[in-house]
Amino acid sequence: MSSSHLPATSESLDLASEAKTRSEAITILYQVLDNPASSSEALRVKEQAITKISELLKEENRGEDLRGLLTTLRPFFSLIPKAKTAKIVRGIIDSVAKIPNSTDLQISLCKEMVEWTRSEKRTFLRQRVEARLAALLMDSKEYSEALTLLSSLVKEVRRLDDKLLLVDIDLLESKLHFSLRNLPKAKAALTAARTAANAIYVPPAQQGTIDLQSGILHAEEKDYKTAYSYFFEAFEAFNALDDPRAVYSLKYMLLCKIMVNQADDVAGIISSKALKFLGPELDAMKAVADAYAKRSLKLFETALQDFKAQLDEDPIVHRHLSSLYDTLLEQNLCRGAEEVVCNQVVLVINSKADRSGKCSQGVGFLDKAANFKGVGCLIIFEDPKTDAIFPATLETIQNMGKVVDSLFVRSAKIMA
């Protein structure tokens, strides 16, 4: 036995697990992989060694070493079934994804693996790596490149009728078109994903993803009641799996409640379903619900400042903040109008948008005539009394018009 490698046996794996440091354990496991043995037992041990190396490198945030591991393993992949190769490659890519700030590395790694799978004619693995690459490109806002990749990939997968992968790709395409603000194509892609999902068994996590995307699209169309039901289904699926997306589904449920003027229900939902999810995401929605219930622009603006990451930087919530602000502005004006106790009153509303003239756009709901004067001042007057002379004058003018029309008709007959 060469000193550069160790036997591919369970004893060698035990030796690695007993190592005092991660670096020492990684060195031992690499020596196991260097063993040239190719028996079924040796291949099984090497697969276990690869899994352990990936975990240790991930814990040490050594993304480049994980990338090098994939390159080192290429000769080994020719000795094992293609299905196992796909499992190992996807597992290593998943390990890289768990390393912070590794998006660029993941994109580069996926592109390398796509080239290798093309040269090795491993279609099944290539399609899945390309789908992962398209998702990474979308997250990096490389929408044009991601759309080009998905367009060719979806045609190929439909031809092969791989419905499980087709569901993933259609979902990804829906998210991409939604990011590009193309709602009709986003809905069409989601419909295609549902159609493919109806023909096969869909894992709960994937079904939750479909429901989450459905809720997002319905919320975009202002159909918040339907969106709430979809977010609820997604929350139930993710919660059962302890998926971190459960808290986001719950967050969007609360947003829907606020948007349909049921902000008082938010506290009850949090206390009944979300005790284990308490944190800044739900605190942000509770602050918005409190501001809405109290019809306070000041509290709303404070919530936006205190929870900027959870509200303004969340692309889904951010899309509805403007509409919510306008609704709050109207509520704020209504509250001011309710306090009118005299014939003429000046309401001064402290808000940047109002000082710029925003409140003059929201007074159409008032039954009384309103006049916007100056900066930040809304002056409300009682309805003026109608003078009786105006209806009489209008009636006289109408009668004169009829007389003139009659004379015109008669003169036309005479001239004829």
Automatic annotation (TrEMBL):
Claim: Transmembrane helix is one of the keywords in the record: no
Highest taxon of the lineage: Eukaryota
Assigned keywords, A-Z: Proteasome
GO biological process: protein catabolic process
SUPFAM superfamilies (alphabetical): TPR-like
Domain 26S proteasome regulatory subunit Rpn6 N-terminal: 20-128
Domain 6S proteasome subunit Rpn6 C-terminal helix: start-end pairs: 387-412
KW ATP-binding (keyword) present: no
Full protein name: PCI domain-containing protein
Species whose genome carries this gene: Mikania micrantha
